[in-house]
Amino acid sequence: MISDLSTIVWKEFKEIFVQRPNLRGGWLGLLIFLFVFGVFLPLQSGPVWLESPASLFIWAWVPFIMVNSIVADSFAGEKERHTLETLLASRLSDRTILFGKLAAAMAYGWGITLVGILLALVTINLAYGEGHLLLFPANIGIAIVVLSFLVALLAAGLGVIISLRASTVRQAQQTLSVAFLLLFIPLFIFPILPGDTQRAIVEAFSRLNMTMLLVILGAFLLVLDIALIGLAIVRFDRRRLIMST
Amino acid sequence: MQTYAIQTLNLTRDFPSVRAVDSLTLEVPAGSVFGFLGPNGAGKTTTIRLLLGLLEPSSGNGKVLGFDIRDQTEEIRQRCGALLEHDGLYERMTAEDNLEFYGRVWRMSAPERKSRIEELLTHLGLWERRKEPVGSWSRGMKQKLAVARALIHRPSLLFLDEPTAGLDPVAAAKLREDLAELVSSEGVTVFLTTHNLGEAEKLCHRIGIIRQGKLIASGPPAELRASSGSPQLEIVGKGFDDSVLAYVKSLPEVLNARLNGDRLVIGSKGSLQSAPLVGELVSRGVAVEEVIKSQTSLEEVFLKLVEEDEKVEGGQR
């Protein structure tokens, strides 16, 4: 199983890094991303980049975007380019193909996010450290690592389900972008709620401390991820998939 | 060793609006090249998908290499290679990486992969271009590479779904030549679907003809020709008229006859002697220039069988 998974990951990485023609993936896109989030924004913000909950929000958002483009290409792309049927006719099991592709997308999206976080730490320390080691506060640091992983998994699970229904990569990416916007619905709804409701919500959240809030958010994402991956396992069935190739 | 690589009994597959494969009973001897002929939409691709365990049969049974097509699909795919409707190549990857990937899929060791890739690409004349992304290749080259991919793990059974479809005549002829060589050197059983009858005649030991999901004939090409076709006599000359045509049609050995310009085309039962007939035609004022005897081609057999099947079906309605 491990050897088969690594075979799929090997192929996916070949497609992502070596021969990917567009800028969203590949080395150039990657370097631009790392420069913006690992160097430019930390330099602009200063040490507050490490302490502010806003950086948590940014680092949780980044893997969604990174995984989103890879998953759509990996699943809907195989259908669109007519390579899926041959892969399904091989000796690999459905779960090996599914988890191999998920592992590649996660390794790319979450791995790059972690590299970006480390690069930001190095940038802040070099620019503002003055001999002291500047680090994320413990709760924010742990939350960034855990939440970015759970968000990457969310993007991967959602991406598989949407891509399996889409007939082209573009269609899958567009649907995923809409799904991404849906995550912000609470932010859009909040200002139009009645004043009393707004105050009640603010009070409810203010009773929670930051750590508790992050734990609740993490638990919610974990449940969502498990549900989505479970659904992806059910949907990724070669006897069903072969009808769409 | 298995006597038959493929055996099916009343294999049927229904889709919501159509019965794609209808009570298919088939035996493909191990080590043979079996041609599965049929018009577009006849059920050839669905049959391959059923045999590879990619689709579940609606009813009936089948065994591939001794394994059940319902319950032992992984065992079947482990031992088979396939070039399906599309070449299935990763166009952004190089030719070598495409084969490397499928070599890894079939758990070949690194030295084994290396030597097998070199062997296949050299055999197919693609070794010098192994570092190129296959997206830039011609369709003929891609099909050859797809054949190499299907053979990389030395499968016992190879499925080829219309391997020369869409190729120009030169590329198709070259691929057929390469296929024939590879099949004979690898000793693999081949299940080949095509609607190119010349291809089937050149490559196949046995042929099955399918129409609307039903097998309407099966056997070696020579046997099919003998059972379905009649020998033809073509007389080229001048002076043919209706009375000559009526005379020829009246002969007991003649099945049918027609005039085609300066040619008289006669379908016979096989016992028609050409010399006395030519003598009689000359005495009736025909200036005979050439006499051509020919066997029925597989194409004619195929068209005749399909036509007969259509008539039977029409009569049943």
Radius of gyration of chain B over all CA atoms, rounded: 24 Å
Task: Provide mean pLDDT of chain A, rounded.
Answer: 86
How many strands, what sense, and barrel or not for the largest sheet of chain B?
6 strands, mixed
- How many helices of chain A does DSSP assign? 12
SSE order and pairing:
The complex is a heterodimer of chains A (245) and B (317).
Chain A: H1 2-18, H2 26-45, H3 48-51, H4 53-80, H5 84-88, H6 94-128, H7 138-165, H8 169-182, H9 185-189, H10 195-207, H11 210-235, H12 238-241
Chain B: E1 4-15, E2 18-29, E3 33-37, H1 44-51, E4 59-64, E5 67-68, H2 73-79, E6 80-83, H3 95-105, H4 110-123, H5 139-151, E7 157-161, H6 169-186, E8 189-194, H7 197-203, E9 206-211, E10 214-219, H8 221-228, E11 232-238, H9 242-250, E12 254-260, E13 263-268, H10 274-283, E14 287-294, H11 298-316
Parallel strand pairs in B: 3-8, 3-9, 6-7, 7-8
Antiparallel strand pairs in B: 1-2, 1-4, 4-5, 9-10, 11-13, 11-14, 12-13
Helix pairs in contact in B: 3-4, 5-6, 8-11
Can you put this structure into words, describing what you see?
The complex is a heterodimer of chains A (245) and B (317). With 245 residues, chain A is mainly α. Chain A has one domain (2-244). Helix content of chain A is 81%, strand content 0%. Chain A has helices spanning 2-18, 26-45, 48-51, 53-80, 84-88, 94-128, 138-165, 169-182, 185-189, 195-207, 210-235, 238-241. In chain A, helix 4 (53-80) runs antiparallel to helix 6 (94-128), helix 6 runs antiparallel to helix 7 (138-165) and helix 7 crosses helix 8. The radius of gyration of chain A is 20 Å and the shape is globular. The mean pLDDT of chain A is 86. Chain B is an alpha/beta fold and 317 residues long. Chain B has two domains: 4-226, Rossmann fold (3-Layer(aba) Sandwich); 230-295, Alpha-Beta Plaits (2-Layer Sandwich), CATH 3.30.70. Helices cover 39% and strands 29% of the residues of chain B. Chain B is built from eleven helices and 14 strands. Chain B has helices at residues 44-51, 73-79, 95-105, 110-123, 139-151, 169-186, 197-203, 221-228, 242-250, 274-283, 298-316, and strands at residues 4-15, 18-29, 33-37, 59-64, 67-68, 80-83, 157-161, 189-194, 206-211, 214-219, 232-238, 254-260, 263-268, 287-294. In chain B, the strands form three sheets. In chain B, strands 6-7-8-3-9-10 form a six-stranded mixed sheet, sandwiched between helices. The chains are: A mainly alpha (245), B alpha/beta (317). The A-B interface holds A 3-4, 7, 10-11, 14-15, 18-21, 81-83, 85-93, 238-239, 242 and B 49, 52, 54-56, 74, 77-78, 80, 82, 84-94, 97, 101-102, 104-107, 133, 149, 159.
